[in-house]
């Protein structure tokens, strides 16, 4: 799969990636899965009559199947922003992200100069077994040249993915070797991990970063918790920032690990689906562990189920920024041609009774998706006072704390987006992809020496001696970004974090990258402060006596 930049440099990029993530991250409950539908209605109707007339009388030859394919997304878009149509050719890719694995050759790659560059090789995967290395370039696939304008993420995925047990022959250019190297690789199952990082962030506090809620997320969480408990973990940070959701069942299982018995986790209800409650069963392994959950505007659906259950049950503290606001349940329905729809059939509600779904206008999905940019322009990322809470939708947690419905989970501790050092020069370098491209090339050219440093701390100490900012500025100028020394040095800290962080990611992987960034992440630092002060468990508010008596 392609290497993605883990830092969100602008709200516009965040909005675009979030909309894409929401399309993949629709979740389904256990009772709603596995449905198939061949023909919804075989009887004659107006739409069928229209298609028949077009087929029989239209001036030009028309492929009715193509008309239907084009109409399906339009029809569903008139319902709500999350009901969607998935063509047969895309269904496997959409599902594989949450399935926990896919069949392929087991490499992380990026595309530079119309050529696939292998960034890393999955440990124990098919490519490692035959000897592929980070830094290799794929130039031939099955004896056919595969370079130039035909090479993009989609075409590369189609070439490298395939049925388990199938073979693919690759022609590899390896720097320092004469001629191409040929490798025949048997495709196998490649794990798709949900937990990006799990480590002791201080001597007593653990940290877990979860990127989605898929089929393997709950087992991965259990492994992470066991690992942290071996390190004498006394408090825990669960980072759900940027997590656009996934399966509701996974979120329910995970919340259950932290709640005592018989506490409501979430409930769903729709016009054709009576209310169904999901409660904790008391078997959780971490029911008394002090807990902080991190959210931001990229946290959606299953992430909001998790955060909402923790907040409404007063089980832990939410730190960060207001979540996205997706409270609609999609039912997957497959057609006999391999395509499918995700149809909204219910809303989910947190234990206090609030629906987190933010308002939307039917048929205006583009405006809905750009809500993140609107929040940015209104100042919501920088000041809690700019967040418009719906004062008509007031609910109360188990202890009587006020929470609000009408759009997203509002954190207990708001942490604004850090804009210190942001300049137009840095923003241009980031949004044009120059930082990523430079760090990929730098990694490729210096892989041998970089391999000598096996921790983020050692890597940073080395990189600090390499004058990377100056070298990057020269590189960027050759790519058309005019050097602006005053702005460059004003953004020096941001540049160094991005340059060092991306090189660490390229060489050591996602967990080392996260460890490095967390050292100066204000939201993470606030979470540590909350835990160290013993403030993770919410307290009964002073004005809650009447509320408690009324209950």
Query: What gyration radius follows from the Cα positions, in whole Å?
Result: 25 Å
Mean pLDDT: 87
Helix content: 25-40%
Beta strands, count: 22
Parts with pLDDT < 50 across at least 5 consecutive residues: 1-44, 545-551
> What is the number of helices?
21
**What does the main sheet amount to?**
6 strands, mixed
Distance between the termini: 52 Å
Percent strand equals 15-25%
Shape: globular
The assigned structural class equals: alpha+beta
What does this protein structure show overall?
This protein is an alpha+beta fold. The protein is about 35% helix and about 20% strand.
Q: Briefly, what is this?
A:
Helices cover 37% and strands 19% of the residues.
Write a concise keyword list for the protein shown above.
single chain; alpha+beta; six-stranded mixed β-sheet; six-stranded antiparallel β-sheet; 21 helices; 22 strands; 37% helix; disordered N terminus
């Amino acid at each position: 799969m392609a290497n993605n930049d883990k830092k969100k440099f602008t709200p516009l990029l965040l909005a675009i990636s979030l909309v894409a993530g929401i399309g993949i991250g629709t979740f389904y409950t256990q009772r709603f899965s596995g449905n198939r539908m061949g023909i919804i209605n075989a009887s004659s109707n107006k739409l069928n009559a229209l298609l028949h007339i077009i087929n029989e009388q239209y001036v030009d030859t028309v492929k009715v199947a193509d008309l239907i394919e084009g109409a399906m997304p339009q029809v569903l878009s008139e319902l709500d922003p999350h009901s969607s149509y998935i063509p047969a050719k895309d269904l496997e890719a959409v599902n594989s992200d949450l399935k926990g694995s896919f069949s392929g050759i087991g490499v992380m790659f990026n595309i530079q100069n119309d050529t696939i560059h292998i960034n890393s090789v999955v440990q124990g995967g098919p490519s490692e077994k035959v000897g592929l290395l980070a830094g290799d370039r794929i130039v031939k696939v099955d004896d056919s040249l595969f370079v130039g304008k035909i090479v993009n993420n989609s075409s590369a995925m189609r070439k490298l993915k395939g049925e388990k047990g199938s073979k693919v022959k690759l022609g590899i250019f390896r720097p320092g070797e004469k001629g191409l190297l040929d490798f025949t690789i048997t495709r196998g199952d490649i794990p798709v991990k949900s937990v990006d990082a799990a480590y002791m962030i201080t001597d007593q506090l653990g940290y877990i970063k979860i990127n989605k809620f898929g089929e393997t997320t709950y087992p991965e969480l259990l492994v992470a918790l066991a690992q942290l408990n071996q390190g004498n973990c006394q408090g825990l940070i669960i980072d759900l920032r940027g997590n656009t959701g996934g399966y509701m069942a996974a979120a329910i299982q995970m919340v259950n690990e932290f709640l005592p018995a018989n506490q409501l986790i979430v409930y769903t209800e729709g016009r054709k689906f009576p209310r169904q409650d999901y409660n904790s069963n008391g078997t959780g392994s971490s029911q008394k562990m002090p807990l902080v959950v991190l959210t931001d505007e990229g946290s959606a659906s299953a992430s909001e189920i998790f955060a909402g259950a923790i907040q409404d049950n007063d089980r832990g503290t939410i730190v960060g920024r207001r979540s996205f606001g997706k409270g609609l349940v999609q039912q997957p329905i497959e057609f006999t041609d391999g395509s499918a729809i995700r149809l909204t059939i219910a809303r989910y509600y947190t234990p206090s009774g609030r629906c987190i779904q933010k308002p939307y206008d039917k048929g205006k999905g583009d405006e809905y998706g750009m809500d993140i940019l609107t929040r940015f322009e209104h100042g919501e990322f920088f000041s809690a006072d700019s967040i418009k809470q719906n004062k008509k939708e007031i609910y109360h947690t188990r202890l009587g704390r006020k929470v609000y419905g009408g759009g997203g989970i509002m954190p207990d501790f708001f942490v604004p987006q850090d804009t210190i050092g942001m300049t137009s020069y840095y923003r241009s370098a980031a949004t044009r992809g120059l930082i990523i491209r430079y760090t990929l090339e730098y990694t490729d050219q210096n892989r041998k020496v970089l391999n000598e440093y096996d921790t983020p701390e050692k890597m940073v100490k080395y990189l600090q001696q390499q004058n990377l900012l100056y070298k990057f500025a020269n590189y960027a100028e050759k790519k058309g970004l005019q050097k602006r020394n005053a702005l460059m040095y004003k953004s020096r800290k941001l540049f160094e974090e991005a340059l060092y962080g991306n090189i660490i990611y390229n060489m050591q992987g996602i967990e080392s990258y996260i460890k490095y960034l967390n050292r100066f992440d204000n939201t993470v630092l606030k979470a540590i402060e909350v835990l160290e002060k013993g403030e993770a468990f919410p307290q009964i508010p002073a004005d809650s006596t009447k509320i408690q008596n009324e209950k």
